[in-house]
């Protein structure tokens, strides 16, 4: 079997890659200490009705809350009412959990989690039901649920070098595309901007014909990058070196390249400025958001120490990075276990919030 679901283990995080031969087909981060909560079901209580926002804030228990949008035909709710809800969108972009109302036979007086949502591993395993599971460590093997254990390959194996390089490249904003094309991905609070660049035309065709072919041939790889990085919401793509009238001819290959995506993104057309406009369901946090969050930066510190500074005994950092490390004590403990010695944390309020240094023995 050449289709694999590979798990690489790091402190506080597992990186899950779906591969066929040397090609990366799908990717997700699994952070047990920070689940995205999507699909989780709660017995909850209406905390505050907000007609101006078209919904209600809902207390989930354990100091957690979410926003429940209410359509005009939704049942009438009152503040304090017990409800059963499901998380439909993870907290992201500075906004909290988004919820949907479930029918419940009996309203519970107790707030709290009823059923946790699927993990990233479970989601990818369902999307790729014939993929064999390959793990790199006993720690990863221990987290495989019973339903997937018969799909696990025996033994332990790290990522192949080519797959590790492809996963590492997902952290970079610059994407290499076929035909010498490149794309620069820039997330903003409002949208994802993607700027495509092409090398000078080297063929005997006219420049516009060559540029059109280069853009067209690069689109499938670019759409795969959008999926691998889970870029969502409004996405605007600026093709390279094409007159606006020629860009409309790219709509058919764009739509074809979007079809394999399970989130069913839609191409809305070409804007007046010649930008390809795509909308993709915003359900899970994007990879750039996960990597650049305080938690993501904290886990990057631990990976750096394991690879580049294994003699580290103390991490000194600004308040933000130390707080993020303290909120995932199991990741810090796992790093210390792999180092073979104690790892302490120290806050230096003179340092910027997310900066850090290490002290070695």
From TrEMBL:
Keywords: Cell inner membrane, Cell membrane, Endonuclease, Hydrolase, Magnesium, Membrane, Metal-binding, Nuclease, RNA-binding. Its cofactor is Mg(2+). Pfam families: RNase_E_G. Residues 39-102 form the S1 motif domain. SUPFAM superfamilies: Nucleic acid-binding proteins. GO terms for biological process: rRNA processing. This is Ribonuclease G/E. Transmembrane segments: none annotated. Signal peptide: none annotated. InterPro entries: NA-bd_OB-fold, RNA-bd_AU-1/RNase_E/G, RNase_E/G, S1_domain. One of its GO terms (cellular component) is cytoplasm. One of its GO terms (molecular function) is hydrolase activity. The lineage of its organism: Bacteria, Pseudomonadati, Pseudomonadota, Alphaproteobacteria, Acetobacterales.
